[in-house]
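Weekly puzzle thread! Below is a chain. First person to post its structure in token form gets bragging rights.
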Amino acid sequence: MCSYQTLFHDDESGYVILCRGCDSIQVAFGNLLLTWNRADFYDFFRFIKRMFNETPVDASGINRKTLAIPVPCDGVRMLLSIRELQQLHHMLDLAETELQSQQLMSLLSGE
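Winning reply:
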């Protein structure tokens, strides 16, 4: 049975929630909803983090949708601007920090 815990929520950018029942992570960003197992979520986060760190910021094109982010469905990509990449990275980074905190707390409490 699904029991959701919010890892990140922002009315404008989206949310990241964890299902404690099946250990899946749901990412809502813009009009896209992705559901990952934990390992795939971390792979996706690492990919976004790498793009975030390697993509030069061009102030004149910060809102231009030029970044195609692959998702596991063939032929489907997320099309983002640099500003949206920044928002997505921020959202995933905070959610990942919350996940790490929860894992540490459960180790310390012996669960």
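Puzzle host: Confirmed. Bonus trivia for everyone else. The chain is about 40% helix and 30% strand.
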